[in-house]
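Q: Given only this backbone (745 positions), what sequence would you predict?
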């Protein structure tokens, strides 16, 4: 059904074409949601009675097996998947109020609860919170966004998105739903909040709440549903449930072993939605997480070794990502394992390689998502461990490495570990763990092309654990690694740590009005940006963001403006490192709205002869382009005979004949149109042999009339006082009888 302009129900394919402000909802997953002829469920299925999590059958809720004391809802357990990331996905478990959300008002979400106690979190609820967080964190692990239960300071676009988890859809939505969210709300004017309703998700079952949370957040980042169609293109299922234990997060993944990002049909049978490309697009600002380890044998990071034990942890961000680790082993049997978290997305592959990258052994089991291999080392030396994806779309996520090796006793230097990089103004502060006891120096290496090319940034002394690099510039993403060395040996490289600097401010902003409602902007592109934000003001004091552009854009047209109004603009460049300072301010005034001019008035005849008629009028408008002169001969229709420019108030018609009645009227005009006509004046021209002049510039009363109709006849002429007539005839040089006989002949 449609409710206040938002789509919240089952619908035909035509109605389902989502736009940036259409609402979508995931509907209830419990047995109470069986569909009827009048129900409005997006998912008309019933969840299983139980499901398996980490090998143990779980029913209803998820617990960790550890007894925890109940805590106030204000003390939500604090979890963060990527502290320091510029963007945040906040899982809100302790209740939320939103005064306006789309067409809804005063939306109140209670705290997450499975026991109807909304003041504390029980031990089971705390365990569920951890499980829900870890599931969403796994789904968003490939991206440079922090999934957290700690509330951020701002929920501005491109900063943070809230998932409000609590209560029932019946509290305010008016439909039975497991979750609801606006598409593209992270970048449009809708409040940055989506909702998940535990009451409709098997009383807050962690698996279902986690799937719904990732799904609704996906909508806010621009995703529509992953849907299923038959061979004819007809819609089979609005929410595709996948197959072989895999299902799209943006479909129906509640009962799947793995809910994954998907590349499949969406709003039509021919519309393919690439989930990960849309989430990582520049509009959303955060993109993919920086690669944590080198991708080749030569750029491998040192595997942490403690006695015979090895360990590491990382993230496969894309199916092409390969994480390489180096270690030394003596002759003997080694075992290497890759594990994945509960509710994993990654299906892992593990490889043992030589120091040059030749594959010696690999494991890619089909019965488990982790992988293990055992290998007999016959030659002591340096080896590589590679972790990668099985390669199917969405097959990405977190992993851990463990195992045992045979320690090699050689003159070696232990590699540094735990390298971190933090921005400080225009500098980068590096810190690492010194694992060596025999190093004489550390080499700090940097890359500005994503790890393809490395150069030495500095060499520091033994026991050093920090370095500050001040050579970076605006818009750069800079990666670092560190290596220990002595006179006879060098260690493997540390892990890679990266930072991104905000771009420089755009320059040369110019604004030009193109119409009564539009202004064209242009500016110079800066390096390292992933998009631009356009800000506008009407007072050059308070600026509001009105638009964003894609990367490399150098122009924008702002439409829908008010005519004859001055607008001020500035442009900000942005990337994963933040926003630049504002550009110069540019302003333009929209073109004034042109109205039709008013009609001239006071039209009169100023002279008349057998060869010309003079007229004049009063200009009553201040915006005309000119005037049209219209003339009628006798009783014929008026026609335009001439036009004159603006502010002209007289005209002489030199295309007349004697002894003819002429009528005149005038209209003003401009680009908006033509005015109504002025008053009409008429005149009878004299014969060529006796033109009627206007002595001393006065109008000849016997030959003209300024009324709207022609009233000139012989009686009007003969009504003149005798003294006036005598004066006129003397001027003409004729006897009265001769004049009238000729005039009326």
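A: Predicted residues:
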């Amino acid at each position: 059904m449609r409710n206040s302009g938002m789509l919240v129900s089952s619908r035909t394919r035509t109605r389902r074409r989502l736009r940036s402000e259409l609402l979508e909802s995931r509907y209830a997953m419990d047995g109470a949601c069986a569909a009827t002829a009048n129900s409005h469920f997006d998912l008309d299925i019933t969840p299983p009675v139980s499901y398996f999590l980490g090998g143990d059958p779980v029913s209803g809720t998820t617990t960790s097996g550890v007894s925890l004391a109940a805590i106030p809802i204000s003390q939500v357990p604090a979890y963060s998947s990527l502290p320091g990331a510029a963007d945040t996905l906040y899982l809100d478990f302790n209740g939320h109020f939103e005064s306006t959300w789309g067409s809804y008002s005063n939306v109140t979400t209670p705290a997450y609860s499975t026991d109807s106690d909304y003041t504390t979190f029980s031990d089971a609820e705390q365990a569920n919170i951890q499980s829900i967080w870890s599931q969403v964190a796994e789904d968003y692990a490939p991206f440079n966004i922090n999934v957290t239960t700690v509330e951020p300071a701002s929920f501005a676009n491109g900063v943070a998105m809230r998932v409000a988890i609590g209560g029932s859809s019946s509290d305010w939505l008016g439909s039975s739903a497991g979750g609801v969210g606006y598409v593209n709300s992270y970048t449009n004017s809708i409040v940055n909040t989506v909702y998940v309703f535990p009451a409709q998700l098997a009383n807050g079952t962690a698996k279902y709440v986690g799937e719904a949370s990732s799904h609704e957040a996906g909508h806010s980042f621009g995703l529509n549903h992953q849907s299923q169609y038959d061979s004819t293109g007809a819609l089979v299922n609005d929410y595709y449930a996948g197959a072989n234990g895999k299902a799209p997060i943006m479909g129906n993944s509640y009962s799947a072993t793995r809910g994954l990002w998907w590349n499949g049909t969406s709003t039509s049978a021919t519309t393919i939605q690439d989930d990960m490309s849309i989430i990582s697009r520049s509009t959303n600002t955060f993109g993919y997480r920086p690669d944590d380890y080198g991708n080749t044998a030569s750029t491998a990071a040192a595997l942490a070794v403690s006695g015979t034990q090895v360990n590491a942890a990382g993230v496969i961000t894309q199916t092409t990502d390969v994480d390489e680790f180096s270690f030394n082993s003596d002759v003997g049997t080694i075992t290497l394992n890759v594990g994945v978290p509960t509710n994993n997305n990654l299906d892992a592959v593990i490889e043992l390689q030589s120091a040059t990258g030749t594959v010696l052994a690999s494991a890619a089991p089909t019965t488990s998502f982790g992988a293990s291999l055992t290998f007999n080392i016959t030659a002591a030396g340096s080896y590589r461990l590679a972790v990668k994806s099985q390669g199917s779309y969405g097959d990405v996520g977190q992993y851990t490495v463990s195992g045992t090796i045979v320690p090699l006793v050689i003159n070696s230097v232990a590699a540094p570990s735990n390298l971190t990089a933090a921005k400080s103004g225009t500098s980068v502060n590096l810190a690492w763990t010194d694992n060596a006891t025999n190093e004489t120096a550390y080499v700090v290496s940097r890359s500005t092309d994503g790890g393809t090319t490395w150069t030495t940034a500095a060499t520091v002394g033994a026991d050093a654990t920090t370095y500050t690099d001040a050579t970076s510039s605006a818009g750069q993403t800079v990666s670092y690694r560190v290596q220990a060395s002595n006179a006879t040996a060098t260690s493997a490289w540390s892990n890679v740590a990266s930072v991104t600097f905000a771009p420089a401010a755009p320059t040369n902003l110019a604004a030009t009005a193109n119409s009564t409602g539009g202004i064209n902007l242009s500016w110079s592109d800066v390096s390292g940006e992933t998009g631009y934000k356009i800000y506008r003001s009407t007072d050059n004091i308070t600026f509001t963001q009105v638009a964003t552009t894609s990367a490399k854009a150098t122009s924008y047209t702002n439409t829908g403006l008010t005519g004859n109004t001055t607008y001020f603009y500035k442009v900000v460049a942005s990337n994963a490192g933040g926003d630049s300072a504002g550009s110069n301010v540019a302003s333009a005034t929209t073109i004034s709205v042109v109205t039709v001019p008013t009609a001239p008035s006071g039209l009169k005849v100023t002279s008349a002869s057998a060869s010309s008629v003079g007229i004049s009028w009063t200009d009553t408008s201040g915006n005309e382009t000119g005037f049209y002169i219209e003339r009628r001969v006798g009783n014929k229709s008026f026609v335009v005979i001439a036009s004159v420019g603006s502010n002209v108030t007289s005209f002489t018609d030199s295309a007349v004949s004697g002894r003819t009645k002429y009528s005149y009227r005038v209209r003003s005009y401009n680009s908006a149109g033509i005015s109504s006509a002025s008053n009409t004046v008429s005149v009878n021209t004299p014969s060529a042999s006796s033109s009627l002049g206007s002595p001393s510039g006065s109008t000849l009363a016997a030959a003209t009339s300024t009324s709207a109709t022609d009233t000139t006849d012989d009686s009007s002429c003969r009504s003149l006082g005798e003294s006036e007539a005598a004066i006129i005839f003397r001027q003409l040089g004729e006897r009265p009888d001769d004049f009238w006989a000729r005039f009326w002949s």
